[in-house]
Amino acid sequence: INIDLGSVMHTFAKGIVPLIAYCDFQRAKGVEVHVDLPQLPDQREYWEKVGWSQLINGEEPPPLDAQKSYLPVQRFSTYSEQERIVNAAQEVIARQVTCEKGVLDGIMWTLQELAYNVIVHSTDEGVTPTGYFQVVGHPNSDWIELVVSDGGRGIRHSLHNYKIVNSDKDAIQLAIQQGVTRDPAAGAGNGLAGSVNITEAADGVMAIFSGAAEVRIHGLGQLESYDCGKVPGTTVLVELPTGKPLDLSAALFGAPPLAAFEMSYVLDDEHVLFTVMSEAEGFGTRDSGRQLRTKLKNIVTEYPDSRILIDFEGMDIPSASFLDEFLGRLAVESGGFVPFSRRYGLVNTSSFVDRSLEHVLKQRFEHEDGTIQARIATAQTEDTDTSSEPQTVDPGAELVSNLERLGTLRGQG
């Protein structure tokens, strides 16, 4: 088979990932497949970066790096591979796209279930399954796109032991119902059904391709089915908006999963700890600062009642650009220095970090007349009359005072 993509000008994951799975399927049958890649320089560069060039030609994808701004298309065959790349996908999304409450967990739940289905249901007994998935964040348009594809036996064949169905359309529509599974020992039949519920609750779009049929879900109860050219395996496309809160409890049959960040970041019932040194390899660029700010905002969304402690232990000389993009912008987005200082605590800062932060925050909150003004609510301390007027103070001096107080509290446990 020769596939000529040389003149292609635009490419999308929802088209390329299934094509990669198709080429893999044909090669497994002993068919020789040759693909001419796009010739446009920007296309070739992007294909190489996200792993399309390698996988479509049967080669290994680029290595995972969760601290990059994208996730290359991934191939998986085992549960350990599935877990590793799903965790990496979560990290990339958290750093790149700001999600409303419940959205990030809904995306991860859906991706986990769809990848699990490939391993459990896509092949006959004794045959090694192979699946591909890619996650694409669109922060400028507030959407996240998931694509999961395999070249296996398809939904209709997979359901054969559960129920004989007459068409691929009927098989897909049966598979998305709660409790339907080819093997009760392999699962409860909630994966696709829960993914559909999440899509509907989020006002997103899901398309399922299997055999010679496509079923598309968009909006609550809006389901359409189509005949299409017969292809091996199954592809599921999910597009979810990130700017609308998602009630996972309602979507997942009253039993929401644990929050995506629960085990890693919760310090106690009242505090979340964000350790800067463990979150990035470099602290010299605005891009690194933007990634950490985005991830921290996603954590804050999941824990709206917790105080966030940002731990700088081990960090000596971050750049001013990094600190401004990370905390300067975060303070502005928090509504000003006062609400920022109430919600966030900075601990284990070096003298260099203290001076740099003071400079950054002064620049952020400096008025046109050159004065530094920030209103600090007098009710912040126990010995202050809450009925008095707020005082005007230097935010840098207040920050140093807060750091010293937090350091004392931390030392006291």
Strands, helices and their partners?
Elements: E1 2-4, H1 13-28, E2 34-36, H2 41-50, H3 52-56, E3 74-76, H4 79-96, H5 103-121, E4 131-138, E5 143-150, H6 154-158, H7 168-175, H8 191-201, E6 205-218, E7 223-241, H9 248-251, H10 262-265, E8 271-275, H11 286-302, E9 307-311, H12 320-333, H13 337-343, E10 344-347, H14 351-364, E11 374-376, E12 391-393, H15 395-411
Parallel strand pairs: 1-2, 8-9, 9-10
Antiparallel strand pairs: 3-4, 4-5, 5-7, 6-7, 11-12
Helix pairs in contact: 4-5, 4-11, 5-8, 11-12, 12-14, 14-15
How would you portray this structure in words?
- The structure is a single chain.
- With 413 residues, the chain is α/β, with parallel strands linked by helices.
- 41% of the residues lie in helices and 19% in strands.
- The protein is built from 15 helices and twelve strands.
- The protein has a five-stranded antiparallel sheet with strand order 3-4-5-7-6, sandwiched between helices.
- Strand 6 and strand 7 form a beta hairpin.
- Helix 4 packs across helix 11.
- The longest helix is centred in the first third of the chain and has 19 residues.
- 39% of the residues are buried.
- About 7% of the residues have low confidence.
